[in-house]
Amino acid sequence: MGLLNLPTSKRNPRHWRLLDIVSAVLFGFVFLFFLLVFTPLGDSLAASGRQTLLLSTSDPRQRHRLIALVESGHQQTIESCPAEAVDHMPCEDPRRNSQLSREMNYYRERHCPLPEDTPLCLIPPPEGYKIPVQWPESLHKIWHDNMPHNKIADRKGHQGWMKHEGPYFLFPGGGTMFPDGAVQYIEKLGQYIPISGGVLRTALDMGCGVASFGGYLLAEDILTMSFAPRDSHKSQIQFALERGIPAFVAMLGTRRLPFPAFSFDLVHCSRCLIPFTAYNATYFIEVDRLLRPGGYLVISGPPVQWPKQDKEWADLQGVARALCYELIAVDGNTVIWKKPAGDSCLPNQNEFGLELCDESDDSNLCMGEYAIGMIPKWPERLTVAPSRTIVLKSGIDVFEADTRRWVRRVAFYKNSLKLKLGTTTVRNIMDMNAFFGGFAAALKSDPVWVMNVVPARKPSTLPVIFDRGLIGLYHDWCEPFSTYPRTYDLIHVTGIESLTKDPVSRKSRCNLVDLMVEIDRILRPEGTVVVRDTPEVIEKVARIARAVRWLATIHDEEPESHAREKILVATKTVWKLSSSSH
């Protein structure tokens, strides 16, 4: 280090500044090399770089190349999304939707990104994720770490919604309007409406919270579709599904809900705060469309006999009278109405001048044959061909053949393919292409519920599914589904490629890779996927299955089948983000 001691007169100042710069740069390169090679930061930076490359959507061609590699089998695995994406729902992304209009809650409805704007990556589980608690124990408790969101427990614990205790969230069964428990509340409703005996089967719970009302109605053989938006409570539907209760994310806003007319025997709102009389009673009319003739509407909470809401309560009663609803009871802050069973209530013959039936849609089915009392009770209605099978030529014959076919197929699934149907490991099931709901009907004796999806551009068979006492919704599979990640134990699909094609032109509207990445998003770790399709399609599905980290096997169809099909059975593997991915 003698240079530092040279007399000033012996130094060359310009030369020394140049040496300083060169030395500093060399030292920096050496330090960075050691940092990247010998410390965890190097792994983290590398992972971050890969992720940035993966999530970049500025160049659609890059995304298309990746999809082509996956379809051809040349891409071994699709990368994982970053840790903060564990609860990502593409169509209910608050970061994007918060920029939209608040009018009629437009910003809380579905708003899906274009495929090219969607990252092609696999949603990771949260740190500490465990295989969910099994049904029926899950009705009362779930693992805290599977969705470690304490906000509802902190805010609503005193109302009996849920509480955090040790490694669990516990669900006492309460709600804002029934803090003493859903069981007592349901017993009170049973004084006015036929809760027991199979008269009522399908119910809709609007603004459901953690869905305890629907969860406890299951004991009465009433199957409830619960919904709520992704709002300030954030994860209420996520909790409901983790408990094993049928639910999905939705908002009563500017659009109709994805159900046909006359779907539900009972519609319920417990402090759902839906402004039923606003916008010329738009929301009440939507409820009327969905409620089966002779069905019951229950509203608990504001504005029913609520302080300082006299006008709102009077308006609500006025709309009900305009729609010819029969007032059954007002019990405290709960009102119960019954929808007329026939066509006695005609358009424009009411004090509000409301249009009851619109010739342009399915709500013009103002016929008593769909009314409560005219359809068979549960469980008989499950196997009796409903009159709405006329949507297809020879619909009744097709219905009966489809019912027999699925009894055989489900027996084959259980006995030959050894699927875990009928065991406590399978609770939440989705049929992505449900047709008449035959697959779900064949599972009647199993401790499961099935979300029957009738895809866009397919025959409109969803009314038949509801008429037979099952539940489901319409959905376009070229868009993500409105649910949280990791919510289904088993996902079943017949004719998977048809979900991506236009039925008339047969041209692709979207691709199988995006669809299977979406299936992976909503499937639980260790969950099962069953795909039926032609051998050529199944071969393509098997290649993509490897890329989404499923373990897949291919089987021949059941011996009695005359279709040219193969069956792929896949299991979603349990994987975690490496520490370098955080």
UniProtKB/TrEMBL annotation:
Recorded topology in the membrane: Single-pass membrane protein; Single-pass type II membrane protein
Keywords of this entry: Glycoprotein, Membrane, Methyltransferase, Signal-anchor, Transferase, Transmembrane, Transmembrane helix
What main location does UniProt list? membrane
- In Gene Ontology terms, what is one molecular function of this protein? S-adenosylmethionine-dependent methyltransferase activity
State the InterPro entries in the record.
Put_SAM_MeTrfase, SAM-dependent_MTases_sf
Has UniProt tagged this entry with the keyword Cell wall biogenesis/degradation? no
TM stretches of this protein = 21-41
Q: Does the keyword Membrane apply?
A: yes
Q: What is its EC number?
A: 2.1.1.-
**GO aspect biological process, one term:** methylation
GO cellular component, as recorded: endosome; membrane; trans-Golgi network
User: Where is the protein situated, by its record's location annotation?
Assistant: Endomembrane system; Membrane
Family statement:
Belongs to the methyltransferase superfamily.
Tell me what this protein is called. Answer: Methyltransferase
**What organism, scientifically named, is this protein from?**
Quillaja saponaria (Soap bark tree)
